[in-house]
Amino acid sequence: MRTFVYVDGFxxxxxxxxxxxxxxxxxxxxFAKVLQPRHDILKVKYxxxxxxxxxxxxxxxxxxxxYLRALLRYRAEVEVYYGHFLTHRVRARLARPxxxxxxxxxxxxxxxxxxxxxxxxxxxxxxxxxxxxAVVVSNDSDIAEAMRLVKEHHGKRIGLVTPGARRASHxxxxxxxxxxxxxxxxxxxxxxxxxxxxxxxxxxxxW
Length: 207
Prior knowledge:
This protein has one domain (about 1-95, about 130-190): 5'-nuclease (Rossmann fold). The relative contact order is 0.22. The protein has 7 helices and 8 strands. About 30% of the residues lie in helices and about 30% in strands. It has helices spanning about 10-15, 25-35, 60-75, 115-125, 145-155, 170-175, 185-190, and strands spanning about 1-10, 40-50, 80, 85-100, 100-110, 135, 155-165, 180. α4 (about 115-125) runs parallel beside α5 (about 145-155). The strands form 2 sheets. It has a 6-stranded parallel sheet, with helices on both faces. Strands 4-5 form a two-stranded antiparallel ribbon. The chain is globular. The mean pLDDT is about 90. It has about 210 residues and is α/β, with parallel strands linked by helices.
């Protein structure tokens, strides 16, 4: 079965990778384990955004860049698409008011574009008859309508893969023909080679 996999990168990271030593992840190998052998994985589309350094960790962008270069060099079927971050000041209520102070101004940073990009590619590839089965790797309910349209108007099979131990979104699961969960053992056994063959690209220290 011709299968495209659509990965919400930040959902995957926070659901299955954060705090683990398994961030040097081979996406194709992982989904070959998670899915049944009858799935012929033609594309893995990875949706993310470029991160910035923080006062506590200025090397975040470098580590991300090394990983993305490694992934693209080692796996020809992987494609990376970028959203962006927006940072703005907002006023929020305090959980514990101090005297008469009920609110405070905070800086909020939000990732924008990944869910929209994923939904657009999911729909467009369905219209182009590029796949028989689309597998969505996310727990973001905003993608539910795109899944519904692909299933109802194009007759495609839809799979839902949930990162980590979180319960699958009810809105997403309602449009899925099957659901899977990414378990720690599959992540641990799906690591890229270090270094990437034929290159000097190596796993970042601490990963």
